[in-house]
Amino acid sequence: MVKILAFAAIVAATATATASAASVPDGTWPTSAGTVQYAEPYTVKAGETFDGGLKTYERSDVSCEGQTESASSTAVFLVEAGGTLKNVIIGKNQMEGVHCDNNDCTIENVWWDDVCEDALSIKSGSASSVSTVTGGGARNADDKVIQHNGLGTVKIDGFYVDTFGKLYRSCGTCGNKPRKVSVSNVLAVNPSVSLVTVNENYGDEATLSNIYIKSSSSSYTVCAWSQGADGGEPKETGNGIKAPSRLLVVGQMAE
């Protein structure tokens, strides 16, 4: 196991200490309390808290089609800005999992049992928007777990992710929208690409702390950067720290 201890330096930005509320997961997956199927996405309204009681929620009319691009119409939950989704297991029958299409949502103890195209999509918002993912986990993601297309900051704390491509991806085809992500107290098992991938040319900033990675392969990177592009796929150009990107240096310790 490799433990990411802390960031030691930053390029072109100032590091800010962030308090973490969650503990590092132990890899335990929750037992479902039953199954609920929806024929359309369920909307969690602004100011509403949806507590799912750790039941499995999925679609009755949608099946996963792998990395086929879809939209919010194939999600299980749509969480409005100011809404909270908690204590939910997302089942395999869906494509887009959960959407926060107006940013500023709270995701608490939500588990994605079998990620399809994406687990969580965060869109729109402003530079001051903050969406939080606290506790919970995701597994079996061929590509991304959390896709950040909007503005602002995503905070991921106390999350468990197993067998995945990327835990977090800052959109590389959504135009010049600087984004920030903080990842703390995470247990990551068998990543295939990176823990986070951000766009160097858009001034993205990633802050990681107290990350545990368990993998039999060394083919992944902890923090990768790419060159965002308006047309075509973004090109990954490296990993770690590189001026003028806003990526931090990490310390590592074998365990």
UniProtKB/TrEMBL annotation:
Pfam families: Pectate_lyase. The keyword Transmembrane helix does not apply. It is found in: Secreted. InterPro entries: Pectate_lyase_PlyH/PlyE-like, Pectin_lyas_fold, Pectin_lyase_fold/virulence. The keyword Repressor does not apply. Its EC number is 4.2.2.2. Its cofactor is Ca(2+). Keywords: Calcium, Lyase, Secreted, Signal. It comes from the Eukaryota. One of its GO terms (cellular component) is extracellular region. It catalyses: Eliminative cleavage of (1->4)-alpha-D-galacturonan to give oligosaccharides with 4-deoxy-alpha-D-galact-4-enuronosyl groups at their non-reducing ends. One of its GO terms (molecular function) is pectate lyase activity. Residues 1-21 form the signal peptide. It is an enzyme of class 4 (lyase). One of its GO terms (biological process) is pectin catabolic process. Belongs to the polysaccharide lyase 3 family. Pectinolytic enzyme consist of four classes of enzymes: pectin lyase, polygalacturonase, pectin methylesterase and rhamnogalacturonase. Among pectinolytic enzymes, pectin lyase is the most important in depolymerization of pectin, since it cleaves internal glycosidic bonds of highly methylated pectins. Favors pectate, the anion, over pectin, the methyl ester. This is Probable pectate lyase F. The lineage of its organism: Eukaryota, Sar, Stramenopiles, Oomycota, Peronosporomycetes.
